[in-house]
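User: Predict structure, ligand guanosine-5'-triphosphate.
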Amino acid sequence: MSGGDTDGRLVRLFALTGGRTRPSRADFTLITTVTAVDPPPTWATRPQPEHQRILRRCAEPIAVAELAALLDLPVSVVVIMLCDLLESGRITARAPHPVSCQPEDLDLLQKVRDGLGRL
Amino acid sequence: MAGSDVITRAAPDTVKILIAGGFGVGKTTMVGSVSEIAPLRTEEPLTAAGLGVDDLDGIEEKRATTVALDFGRITIGSDLVLYLFGTPGQQRFWFMWNDLALGALGAVVLIDVRRPETSFAAIDFFERRGIPFVVGVNGFYGDHPYPPDEIREALALPDHVQVLLCDARERDSSRDVLIALIDQLIAVAVHTGAAPRTDK
Ligand SMILES: Nc1nc2c(ncn2[C@@H]2O[C@H](COP(=O)(O)OP(=O)(O)OP(=O)(O)O)[C@@H](O)[C@H]2O)c(=O)[nH]1
Ligand SMILES: [Mg+2]
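Assistant: Predicted complex:
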């Protein structure tokens, strides 16, 4: 935005991810929903504070983009940390509904249309 | 995905629609007028968005190395949520559109009626990729000097692409543009299915 502190911020952001700039898996999208597993699996180790911050925000299902906006972090950084949490069994992730304008999508499309009609 | 046998509160299905168009045509305004939440915003460092620092050559303000993305939400039901993403308007950020478009239901291309040419590239983008879209003509100051057919002709749009006059500031008006897009998608799905839909 203002640009002045961009470099310092970048450095801090990548400290959160241990210097990684790429997620370990590529299937998190902006509208993938994530939910904290409660209680966490017994084998899960204690999460880092920054991971803990994410876990608190996804006690209820939340989309990746929303999570990033609420935490004021770039999506790319949040995704890297979500990969850690997924691998340690602390969250579940649900992929978005695939849509291809095929007849099997009609129910979904009709549902969206009805929902918009109620606005 | 991993851990799918772990039962947590059921996450809803999610779908998205893009609100696209040139710089300053009213995309964020439209997202905000229909969203149930104030539009949210994320800032992405360009280096993290998959662009090497070297690729920033030619971008005049190298310090502004983030691209903003704003979005809104419409809860359709407890099991289905629609997200609206306003695409970054400035042309230099269009590399992000490919990612954004992936898995989208379709798009609304907004046009500023006073300078329609700024949205030509957006129309071209969706046409080339075969992504369904409707055109929303944002009146600005409520003015609609041209009828939809004239705009369709000027933009050389095929008949199946709807052109709607709208006011991005008005919730009802923005909603109607979204409904028109969904109707267009339903028509495609029915057509693809060949056999008319008789169930349900
Ligand atoms: N009078 C009037 N002003 C509008 C209308 N739609 C948008 N605006 C204003 O036009 C300006 C740009 O609108 P935005 O919604 O930010 O446009 P945008 O397409 O998101 O812009 P970028 O993201 O920068 O490309 C804002 O000041 C809006 O308040 C409209 O229908 N009428
Ligand atoms: Mg905007």
